[in-house]
Every structure is written in C-alpha cells, then in structure tokens.
Amino acid sequence: VHLVESGGGSVQAGASLRLFCAASGITYSRYCMGWFRQTPGNQRERIATRFTTGNTFYADSVRGRFTISQGNTKSTLYLQMDSLTPQDSAMYYCAAGPGCYNDPQKMNWWGQGTQVTVSS
After folding, report:
1. What one-character-per-residue DSSP string does the chain give?
2. What is the chain's mean pLDDT, rounded?
C-alpha cells in the first residue's frame, strides 16, 4: 500500500489550505483513511478520519474548522483546513487501515507527510 500526500505549505493565520491524499494498493472493501499531525517531541495526533461507509471523526481542536471528504475515488481524500492558527503548524500525515483509531500504531499505512506552517 502506498499513500501520497500533497497540499501543505506556509500561510498566515486565518488562511486556508487543502491537503490531498491518494492511496494505492488497498485491497479491503471497507477501510479508514484519515489525517494525523505531529509536532516535534509529540506523538502523532488523530485529527480527522473517514471510514468508507462515510462515518467521520474530528478532534476537538479542529472540529468546525477542518472538513474531511472523499475525493473522486474511494481511495482519495481531502482535508480542507480553514481558519488556520499557528497551533495548527505540524507535519500532517495521511494514514489508512482496516479501522479508525486514535492510536497511530494501530493504523497500518502511512504517507510521508506534508508540512503545514501557520504564522501569526
């Protein structure tokens, strides 16, 4: 399985970014795809996930500002990030697996990450 992210960058506070993830090689008919983020010295934090049935999860820190959605195929995923703050600065990782979990060790597959930097 191969996951590739794109869309990170450096923006000012209040701006928006949209991340994209494309997965290939997943053979499960139902699975979870989503986004984790990580800052130096901290564990990867689950921020938004979407199961193929449509069920979504958002962390409290991003609910109402971030929107996860499927792309034009089941194996593509967007994360629309609005009203960004400096606290959103992190490396963002796309992850996938048979289930959605808070524990990053329970997610099977990972992308290489894309950096998001928000300045005040």
Report:
1. -EEEEE--EEEETT--EEEEEEEE----SS-EEEEEEE-TTS--EEEEEEETTS-EEE-TTTBTTEEEEE-SSTTEEEEEE-S--GGG-EEEEEEEESS--SSGGG--EE---EEEEEE-
2. 97
